[in-house]
Design a protein that fits this description.
134 residues; 2 domains; lyase; 4-carboxymuconolactone decarboxylase
């Protein structure tokens, strides 16, 4: 494993998911999954998310679409929150990507993803709707 890639990955992971999430995941690591946590940091965050080819916003949207389409609800909720908080992703962006999920992955996947988005992003949705009606 590359220590440089690991450190770069942890930096991006913290920037995208937030310190609280990363600290919690790191603290919960045991001898069973510590190597897996390191692998995620190095491979996903240090090798892919650290690349310059796409912005973090674009990577967030792609990740949301894939997680929704594959039915990975817990990870989807985490990435929805992170996208709004840390990557410059808007509610409009999320709406559009979940519509794409409905077309290409199926209505049930999109329906579940919209439900999760409303639960996770309820405060932001209410704020946006209040601003629209004002």
């Amino acid at each position: 494993m590359s220590e440089t890639r690991y450190r770069a990955g942890m930096k991006v992971r913290r920037a995208v998911l937030g310190d609280a999430h990363v600290n919690k995941a790191t603290a919960r690591a045991t001898s069973l999954d510590r190597d897996f946590q390191r692998y995620i940091a190095e491979a996903a965050w240090g090798s892919v998310w650290s690349r310059e080819g796409l912005s973090r916003r674009e990577r967030s949207l792609i990740t949301i679409a894939m997680l929704a389409g594959l039915g990975h609800e817990e990870e989807l909720a985490m990435h929805l929150r992170a996208a709004i908080d840390n990557t410059g992703t808007s509610l409009d962006d999320i709406r559009e990507v979940l519509l794409q999920v409905g077309v290409y992955c199926g209505v049930p996947h999109a329906n579940t993803a919209f439900k999760i988005a409303k639960e996770v992003l309820g405060q932001e949705i209410r704020r946006a709707e209040t601003t629209e009606t004002a």
